[in-house]
Amino acid sequence: MKDFVINKVKALKPSGIRRFFEMSKDVKDAIALSVGEPDFDTPWHISEEGVYSIEKGYTFYTSNAGLLELREEICSWLKRKYNVSYNSNEVIVTIGGSEAIDLAYRTCLEEGDEIIMTDPGYVSYEPCALLTGAKVVKYALEEEDEFKIKPEKLEKLITPKTKILLLNYPNNPTGGIMNEEDLRLIADICIKHDLLVVSDEIYSELTYEGKHCSIASLPHMKERTLLINGFSKAYSMTGWRLGYICGPENIISQMYKIHQYGIMCAPTSSQFAGLEALRNGDDDILMMKEEYLKRKNYIMSRLKEMNIPCYNPKGAFYCFLNISKFGYTSEQFALRLMKEAKVIIIPGTAFGERGEGFLRLSYAYSLDELKEALNRIEKFLKENNLI
Ligand code: PMP
Fold first, then answer.
1. Distance from the CA of 205 to the center of ligand 1, in angstroms?
2. Contact at 8 Å (CB) between 295 and 127?
3. Which atom of ligand 1 is nearest to the CA of 101?
4. Within 6 Å (CB) of ligand 1, which residues are found?
5. Ligand 1 pocket test: which of 141, 198, 202 has the largest number of ligand atoms within 8 Å of its C-beta?
6. Could you point out which of 44, 186, 290, 379 has its C-alpha 20 to 30 Å from the C-alpha of 212?
């Protein structure tokens, strides 16, 4: 029989997070701090609207771009929160931020193009870009830069083929953020070199220091930005699979065709739930954010006691522990923690080569679980004379 699978797919590596997760299945009584998924139930008034929509018989397709009411609500939410102005023709409701990333790439990248993204970076960014045939160019994030993109360093990576700069702030896996001042410098470069920015702001509502700034809100940036956001993180709605992408109409109207033919529309009941989230979910976000902040502070104080250096994250729900001083690779250290301390934390290298020397700890877990995990880590370090 012929080999039916194309080379680009064969060349993709399986997700480093999943691989590590699979390995951990055999470890009994382990505590996992590995998943990037909120541990809260979806607030009931949001779920109820989803259920209610089914009861009312809304079990059919919506318009391909998503319910008009929802797109309009997304526009007013973005205006209210981040002062970016879109109209409903500039929005597509997607199956999570995940589909939005893929749509952005498939609409704007092809063989011969280059896209710049950070290393470390979220696991789907590179593989999805490679499927378009584009070349991926990595910007190496530095802890000493607080994991921000620095303009001088960025400019050195730009060639005549560079088309897209992918931004993800607040950042997974580092917890870094970029404020308005930082983003203005990046915006200037994007304008100078005529680049499109794909800005994945899925963690925007989980910003612990200052206010989140969307690069699309800066002068002359809306026309060269595809803004991605969603409901998974802010409203704890990962399983509803709901997100959106906004951008200039000339790009969105072309992108629409890929979404229309490939997806039809995002799940209808999820769209009704999303509408309720945007209208009445501000307090839920605040409640969850306060809880994440408590957890983050707790982890940071325990890490300090143990002398494990860690950048104080300003957004998302991850701590990026610097374990380089212990003399193990990230993978070796994470494996030892898994087997000996029964704590599962993802090696930084799952997010790219530059993640070497780091571990990503997700604090989307209860304070009790975090306490137990940190007790186990402390015991492990003491028993092995590592502290
Ligand atoms: N972007 C980033 C940075 C993420 O961490 C995630 C989820 N872990 C996503 C996008 C995708 O989220 P979803 O498809 O659930 O909206």
1. 13
2. no
3. 10
4. 36, 96-98, 122, 168, 172, 200, 202, 230, 232, 238, 243
5. 202
6. 44
What distance in Å separates the CA atoms of residue 46 and residue 42, rounded to the nearest whole number? Answer: 7
Give the tokens for residue 205. Answer: 């509502």
Q: Tokens standing for 31?
A: 């505590």
- Tens digits of pLDDT across the chain (387 residues): 999 999 999 999 888 887 787 888 888 899 999 989 999 999 999 999 999 999 999 999 999 999 999 999 999 999 999 999 999 999 999 999 999 999 999 999 999 999 999 999 999 999 999 999 999 999 999 999 999 999 999 999 999 999 999 999 999 999 999 999 999 999 999 999 999 999 999 999 999 999 999 999 999 999 999 999 999 999 999 999 999 999 999 999 999 999 999 999 999 999 999 999 999 999 999 999 999 999 999 999 999 999 999 999 999 999 999 999 999 999 999 999 999 999 999 999 999 999 999 999 999 999 999 999 999 999 999 999 998
Partners of 30 in the beta sheet? none
Q: What is the pTM of this model?
A: 0.97
Q: Residue ranges of the alpha helices (H) in the chain?
A: 7-10, 16-23, 44-55, 68-82, 96-108, 125-131, 151-157, 180-192, 249-262, 268-280, 282-305, 330-336, 367-383
Top mutation candidate among 232, 241, 263 for ligand 1, by most atoms within 8 Å of CB: 232
Where helices occur in 163-241 by DSSP H, the ranges are 180-192
Ligand 1 centre to CA of 122 (Å) is 8
Atom 8, ligand 1: which residue's CA is nearest? 36
